[in-house]
Design goal:
- 53% of the residues lie in helices and 7% in strands.
- It has 17 helices and 5 strands.
- It has a 3-stranded antiparallel beta sheet with strand order 1-2-3, covered by helices on one side. A two-stranded antiparallel sheet has the order 4-5.
- Helix 9 runs parallel beside helix 15 and helix 16 packs across helix 17.
- It starts with a strand and ends in a 6-residue tail after the last helix.
C-alpha cells in the first residue's frame, strides 16, 4: 500500500494479496501530510487482515475507510481563500475552459467578500441560511434574476467539488432556491440607418469587430477570437472553430464578402498569423461580459434603443445578417450554413453549397 500523486490529488494504491488486482482510491486531498496520515491508519487496519476470514471484506472496509476518514479529516477550519485554491486545483477544474474558471473565480470573490462582511471567515461556518441571506443581498443590489441564478448554480458547483476535500457532509447550496430563469428577451435587427451610424462612431478594434460581425454573421465570441489562419490563402473563404458546431464535429466555413476581404487585408497588413484583434481576444478570454457592456454603452450614447420589436446589443448584428438574407430570398438551408446554427446535421458538406453561399454573401450591402 502506497501513495501516488495524480493531477495534484493524492491516491492510495493497494493490491489484493489473493487476486493480485490493483486498486487505486482517491484521498480527495492535495495535502501530502494528510494523505500520509490516512495511509498510516489504513496500513494499521490492514495488519488485522489475518483475523478477517474474507479478504474481499477487508478490502471493502479499507476502501470505505478512506471515505469515512476524508469526511472526518483534520481540516476542521478551511479559510475562504484556501477553499478557492482547492477548487482551482481540482482535476475537473483543470479541464475547464479558462473563461469558465475565470467566471467561477469572480463569483467566489464576490461571495467571499460578502461572507467576510458577515464575519464568516471559514467554509465550515457557511449554512443554508447563510446562502439564503446571500441571495437576498444580491436582490438588494438590484441584480437580475439571471445573474442570481448564475451565482447560485456557480457556487453550488464549486462546493460540489470542494466538499469532499474539506470534509463537508453536505453542500450548503443544495436546497437554496433561485428564481426561475427569465425568458430571453427578443432581439431585433438594426436598421440600415442604425448600422451606418454605428460604423461611423466606432474606431480601431471595435470597428474591426463590427465589420467581422456584419459581413460574416459571426457570434461575438467568434469575432473576438478570429485568427488570420482562419482565412484561406487568398482570403476568399473563412473557416473557424465555432463552439456551437463543435458538438457536430466540424468547423464553420463561409465565403468572404469582397468588401470584407479588402477591409481585413488593410487591418492585418504584413501579419501572417495570430488573432485579428489581439487585445480584444485577450480581454474576451478574461471577461467577455465587459466587452458586451462597452458596446451597449456605445448604443446608448448613439440613442439606438430597444423598441416594440426587441432589444439591441452586439448580437443584433448577427440578427441583421440573417434578416438581410431572409429579405433577399436566401433559402433556409443556405442561410443556416452561413450563420452556423446548431441544427446543422453532421453529414452536411459545405462544398456542395459553395455557389449559393457565395451568391448569398454578396447580397450583404457594403456599408
Amino acid at each position: 500500500m502506497n501513495l501516488c500523486l495524480k493531477n495534484g490529488t493524492w491516491y492510495i494504491n493497494s493490491i489484493n494479496p489473493e487476486t493480485g488486482k490493483r486498486t487505486r482510491k482517491s484521498t480527495g486531498t492535495t495535502d501530502k501530510e494528510l494523505a500520509e496520515k490516512m495511509l498510516l491508519q489504513l496500513q494499521q487496519i490492514e495488519m488485522t487482515a489475518k483475523i478477517i476470514p474474507n479478504k474481499d471484506q477487508l478490502r471493502s472496509i479499507l476502501m470505505s475507510m478512506i471515505d469515512t476518514f476524508i469526511i472526518s479529516n483534520i481540516f476542521t477550519e478551511t479559510p475562504l481563500d484556501r477553499a478557492l485554491a482547492i477548487y482551482l486545483e481540482h482535476e475537473e477544474t483543470r479541464e475547464m475552459k479558462p473563461r469558465s474558471v475565470h467566471t467561477a473565480t469572480l463569483l467566489w470573490q464576490v461571495y467571499s467578500k460578502w461572507l467576510s462582511s458577515q464575519k464568516i471567515k471559514i467554509v465550515e461556518a457557511i449554512t443554508y441560511d447563510t446562502n439564503v441571506s446571500f441571495i437576498q443581498y444580491l436582490r438588494s443590489e438590484k441584480r437580475s434574476d439571471g445573474t442570481i441564478i448564475n451565482y447560485r448554480n456557480g457556487l453550488h458547483g464549486i462546493f460540489d467539488r470542494i466538499k469532499r476535500s474539506i470534509g463537508l457532509h453536505e453542500n450548503p447550496w443544495a436546497d437554496v432556491k433561485a428564481p426561475k430563469r427569465p425568458e430571453r428577451e427578443t432581439r431585433r435587427p438594426f436598421t440600415m440607418g442604425e448600422l451606418k451610424k454605428i460604423k461611423a462612431y466606432l474606431t480601431g478594434d471595435w470597428l474591426t469587430l463590427f465589420n467581422i460581425a456584419y459581413y460574416t454573421g459571426c457570434r461575438f465570441g467568434n469575432c473576438a477570437l478570429l485568427k488570420i489562419e482562419d482565412f484561406s490563402e487568398n482570403f476568399t473563404w473563412l473557416e473557424y472553430a465555432d463552439e456551437k458546431l463543435m458538438r457536430y464535429g466540424k468547423n464553420h466555413k463561409v465565403p468572404v464578402h469582397p468588401a470584407f476581404r479588402e477591409f481585413i487585408l488593410s487591418v492585418i497588413k504584413d501579419r501572417t498569423s495570430g488573432y485579428i484583434v489581439p487585445e480584444v481576444a485577450t480581454q474576451y478570454q478574461k471577461d467577455p461580459s465587459h466587452l458586451s457592456r462597452v458596446f451597449s454603452k456605445a448604443l446608448k450614447y448613439l440613442e439606438i434603443q430597444a423598441n416594440e420589436d426587441g432589444m439591441v446589443d452586439f448580437h443584433s448584428i448577427r440578427h441583421t445578417f440573417n434578416t438581410i438574407q431572409v429579405e433577399n430570398g436566401t433559402g433556409a438551408d443556405t442561410r443556416m450554413k452561413l450563420i452556423g446554427h446548431s441544427n446543422l446535421k453532421t453529414n452536411q458538406i459545405y462544398d456542395h453549397a459553395k455557389e449559393p453561399m457565395t451568391k448569398a454573401i454578396s447580397i450583404i450591402p457594403t456599408l
